[in-house]
Structures are given as C-alpha cells and as structure tokens.
Specification:
This protein is an alpha+beta fold. About 50% of the residues lie in helices and about 15% in strands. It has a four-stranded antiparallel beta sheet with strand order 14-3-16-15. A four-stranded antiparallel beta sheet has the order 11-4-13-12. A hairpin with a 5-residue loop joins strand 15 (about 560-565) and strand 16. Helix 5 (about 85-105) packs across helix 8 and helix 12 packs across helix 16 (about 365-395). The radius of gyration is 35 Å and the shape is extended.
C-alpha cells in the first residue's frame, strides 16, 4: 500500500508549500522570542491585553507548559486539553495577575530593593546546607530555570506589590466568633453506635420474574433503558503506525542515528557522596591527618567539626548534577570508599568521601536497533501520510465521494454501524479501532447526516475524514430487544428490596425488643461497635457510616434505631449508644481550622470581587485565536 501511496505524492509543489509554512512558523517563533512584548493584536501574537499590558503567545505558552508540568499533565492529548480549556484557565490566571499589577501601579504600590532582597534571601531554595542564603545556589537555580537575575528580581518586585494590594483588602478578614462556635459545636460533636450490616441476598434466593413482573418494571423505568443517540459512520483513516513495517530503512542510517543519540542510551556513572565542610585549611588538614591514621570519616567529622554524621550525606549524583565543579572533579577522581585530601571549593574547605559507585553503562546498538529503526520508519511514514492527506483533500475538492476518494488513494473505507457520543455501541461496550483522540467523535457529531466532514488530524499525526450515514435518534428499545438486560436490572432491584425489607424488620425488632444486639443475634447477623461517628459518616478505626444514616442518628436519642443503604451494597442498621459533645470530642485545633477556613473563604470572596471590579476598571481583551494556537 505504501508504494501505491508514494506513486502519487512526489509533488514538489506540495513540498515547497510545506517548506514555506515551516519557515514562516520558524520565523514567527524566533521573532517572538527576540521580542517578548510580542507584536499587537493585529499581528495575531497577543493572547490578551490588560490596559497597556500585553500577554503574548510565548508568555502564555511557557506558562501553560509549566502548569502542565506542575500538574503532571505533560502527556495530555491536545484535544483533551482543549476540551478542558486548560490554556484558557492559564490565561485567566495571567490576566488576573496583570489586573492586580495594573491596579498596584495606579495606586503607586511597589516594593523597595530592600524588600525584594529580604524576600529572595528568605527563600529556602536558595539556602545552603548551613541554612544561609548562597548566591551561587541562587544563580545556578535561575540558570537551570532559564531565568535572568534581572527578570527574576522584577518578578519578585511585582509579586510583592500584588501582595500589598491584596493584603490591604483582606487583612481584616476574620471569622465571626459566634459562627465559629456554632459550627464547632455542630460539626465537632460525635456519637457512638452499634451497627448490624444486612447484606444483599444471594441472586439464587430471588425467584424468577414472571412476564408481568418484567413488563411492569420495564414500564416503570423507561429512563433506565433509554439508549442515547447513535450514528452510523463511514470513514477513511490514515495512520503512520500502520505503515511502519512497509518502510525500508538502510542499516547504515539506523547505525548513524544510534551514534547521534548515544548520549540518550548512556546511563552515566553515579556516586554516593559524603562531604565534610570545614571552616579553614588548618582544621581541614587536621581532619585529613586523623582519617589518614585510620579514623572513621563520621567520627572525625563529629570530633573536629561537631558535625552530626547524618548531615554528611549529600546524596547520589552524576557528575553533571553537582553544581560545584571542584566538588564534582574531586568526587569523581576517587575510587569507591576513597577519601580526598582537603580541597577548597565554592562553599569553603571540604573533604569528600565516595561511599558507593554505580557504574555507568551504554545500551548496545543491538539492544535498541529495532527501536531506532521504528523511529526512523515512523518519521518517513508521517511524511507519506501527510502527502496522502493532500491527495484526499484534492479528491474531495474535485467532488469525489468518500468511496471514490478511497479508491483513488488505495485505502479502505471503514464503517461503524452505531456509535454513541461517548464512543460506545448499543450494548454499552467501547467501539474499538476508531482514530485516537476526541476529534473523531466531535467531528461525527458536528457533521450533518449524509455529509462528509473536513479532513482532520489525529493525536498521533494521522488523518481522517468521515461521513455520517445515519443519525439514530435516542429511544427506549422494545422489551423483546432487551429482555435479558431488563431481567438483570429487575433482579438487582429485587435484591435491594429484599435487603431493605430485612433491614426494616431488624430495626423494628430492635425498637420493640429494646436491643439491636439481641435482634441481630436472633437473625444470625454480626454487630460492630462504631465510635467517634461524625456527621460526615466517618468513624474511628477507618470505619464509616452512610452519610444519610449519620445525619439521621444525630437527630435521635440514645437507644433509638435507624437504617440506610450502604455504599458497598445492602443496608446498615444502627442504634445510638452514646454522645460526645464537641468540647470533648474535638480539640482546639479543630476550632482553629474552622476559623481559618472561614477566613480563607472570606478572603477568596474579597479577591474574587476585586477581580470583577478591576475587569470593569481596566479594559481586558482576549484573542481566542491565539489561545487556540497554544495547544
């Protein structure tokens, strides 16, 4: 099939257009990098304007990628991210910060150099092992993050100005003591109870339903059996992965690529290092002399410098991971167990010991040959699929049908008899084999019946075009079509009803006889003691009570009984055996948490109202087209 595709795609015109597009995007990216202010809304590189501030596409893209990394979403499908509006959420946060900056500027709020210096020096991430601010660590950290010192300092200055604005409004946000006390008494109280679980009866104990039983259940629960809208589809799908085995890759190209990627196949040597920092050369030499006499590294550290042995451990690193080049060179020149002479490094005099060495290794060509070949073949297959997509576009431009287009490009027309918006068939099972990502089903539901969609790209560099052959409206199937499904639902409903009847009988017996323990024992049911039950249903020892039952029990007296459905199935019958007021059940920390939560909520409401007010005071313009390009 690949050969048939290649025969029609050797178009220098198409490849020339592609080159122009690539160069255009490359130029745009470089210019945006060189000019962080980005152009204007007319040039299409500005995602948002807040007053006279601009948020360009590079700023938004960097912030968006950072948010994905922070939330562990680096591999999220772009279509899924678009559906969730993740880039727009990131932009909203940036717009809010810009609004605060604009208002802070209007009010003349700023931070002095001394305030900025104090804030930076107080940051834990810039401190050395002695707890002091370390300028080398500061600069290395900024360098690793791709930040300039000037840019970082100005960012801190703006953060401090924003904090002044917000704190000026929220400083007095405290919780009303009367409300705190009322909530503490309500939520801090607990009770104890005796519980008995009534399980669902075995399915074998449920008598077979009659035809009238099924008909009545079916008639009473139409929504339970209602099927959603389905669509019957025909489509052409181009997937590079389907062509990999057909691509021929020269052996020398595979080997050359392996050599070019050798670093990625190399596991560097790692060393576990202990470091003893010493105040001066004389002390360092005295420690080295003691170690040369055979004294243990940790013992000398404690004797000479008063250092706790645990604080000697730096960790396990590759050479590149050690920011102090002197330390790295010293540690990686020693053999396992070796101890260095006194050395002066970035943080003063030190002696280092290598307690363990993990040898580095290089994965052989033979071990990764197939992986490298697959990568190269995939690149070529992606190019071939792109060229083929152009031919499909041309065919539709000529008015060819889906079938005629498929015949021209030697691809099959695939069909789906019925698929729901969620990608399931009428039996509720997932429809397999569809193009990946959410765009396929989106296109299927956006395309009218009898029409074809536009050619769309998939998440794995493939393409598809589909036709909606039929729209199957939502309906409740006839009982005869789904009799097995109705019977299964009826049986489950009947089991629930039988369990509820048993729970009600047990509760009534306990009320009549005055003891849940006796009533449960008479029925062969075990009881469980539930202590520290809160209104949320949580109890001591990891136990829990259905929330509906917990709330009901707090309205009952000691010795009263009630029951509710349990989340794991069946029912829980419970008898109140005791009460503990909040003052005894919950500590002062719980009261403080309530006050803190109320204050935080009040602060959040104040900030939200401030944001709304600032959007009225400062003009905000959003360029949705630029936001879409971030995905």
């Amino acid at each position: 099939m690949l050969q048939a595709m290649r025969s029609g795609v050797a178009s220098w015109v198409a490849k020339g257009v592609l080159a122009i597009v690539v160069l255009s995007f490359a130029g745009w990216g470089l210019q945006d990098y060189l000019d962080a202010s980005g152009g204007t809304t007319q040039t299409g590189n500005v995602a948002a304007e807040v007053g006279d501030q601009r948020i360009d596409i590079n700023e938004l893209s960097q912030a968006y990628r950072a948010e994905l990394r922070r939330n562990g979403l680096q591999s999220i499908d772009p279509e899924t991210a678009r559906q969730l509006g993740l880039a727009r959420q990131t932009l909203n946060g940036m717009v809010n910060r810009a609004l605060f900056d604009a208002e802070a500027g209007t009010l003349g709020l700023t931070a002095t150099d001394a305030m900025v210096r104090q804030d930076i020096q107080a940051s834990e991430q810039f401190r050395n092992q002695f707890g002091s601010f370390d300028r080398d660590i500061f600069q290395n950290t900024l360098r690793a993050a791709g930040l300039t010192e000037q840019g970082f300092v100005e960012g801190v200055r703006m953060d401090l100005a924003r904090q002044q604005l917000i704190r000026s409004l929220t400083a007095g946000a405290t919780a009303n003591p009367a409300i705190v006390e009322a909530l503490f008494r309500y939520h801090g109280a607990t009770l104890s109870a005796l519980g008995a679980r009534v399980p669902l009866p075995p399915a074998s104990e449920v008598a077979a339903p009659t035809a009238d039983d099924l008909q009545s259940f079916y008639d009473a629960n139409p929504d339970m059996f209602r099927q959603p809208e389905f669509r019957r589809l025909s489509y052409i799908h181009l997937a590079p992965q389907d062509l990999i085995d057909e691509v021929s890759v020269p052996e020398q190209e595979i080997r050359d690529t392996y050599e070019a990627r050798r670093d990625s196949y190399t596991k560097p040597e790692r060393r576990t290092i202990q470091q003893l920092l010493l105040p001066d050369q004389e002390t360092a030499q005295r420690a080295a002399d003691l170690m040369a006499e055979g004294r243990a590294f940790a013992a000398v550290a404690e004797e000479v410098a008063g250092v706790d042995p645990a604080s000697l451990e730096l960790g396990t690193f590759t050479r590149r991971e050690i920011p102090d080049e002197t330390l790295a060179e010293t540690a990686f020149s020693l053999s396992e167990g070796g101890v260095s002479e006194p050395v002066q490094g970035a943080f003063g005099w030190f002696i280092v010991k290598v307690s363990d060495v993990e040898a580095g290794e290089v994965t052989s060509f033979e071990a990764v040959r197939d992986e490298v070949r697959r990568d190269l073949a995939l690149d070529e297959a992606i190019d071939a699929v792109y060229d083929l997509s152009k031919r499909i576009d041309e065919a539709f431009g000529e008015g060819l049908t889906l079938e005629e287009t498929a015949e021209r490009v030697a691809l099959p027309v695939k069909t789906v008899e019925a698929v729901s918006r969620r990608g399931r068939d009428p039996s509720g099972e997932p429809v397999t084999g569809l193009p990946p990502g959410v765009s396929f089903l989106e296109a299927a539901w956006e395309t009218p019946a009898g029409e074809a969609s536009f050619l769309e790209e998939t998440a794995n560099s493939g393409y598809f075009v589909l036709r909606v052959d039929e729209v199957i409206e939502p309906r409740v199937p006839e009982l005869a079509e789904i009799e097995d499904q109705v019977e299964a639902a009826w049986r489950e409903d009947r089991r629930e009803a039988l369990a509820e009847e048993q729970a009600e009988a047990l509760a009534q017996a306990a009320r009549d006889g005055g003891s849940l323990a006796n009533a449960a024992q008479a029925r062969g049911l075990e009881t469980v003691t539930l202590d520290g039950v809160g209104r949320d249903g949580n109890a001591e020892g990891g136990q829990s009570v259905p929330q509906a039952l917990a709330r009901a029990l707090f309205d009952l007296g000691i010795g009263d009984v009630d029951y509710a459905a349990a989340s794991e199935g069946g029912y829980l019958v419970a008898e109140v055996t005791g009460r503990t007021p909040a003052a005894e059940a919950s500590g002062e920390a719980f009261r403080e948490n309530i006050a803190s939560s109320l204050a935080d909520g009040l602060e959040s409401e104040i900030v939200a109202q401030l944001q709304q007010a600032l959007r009225q005071r400062h003009e905000v313009t959003i360029n949705d087209g630029v936001v879409e390009r971030v995905y």
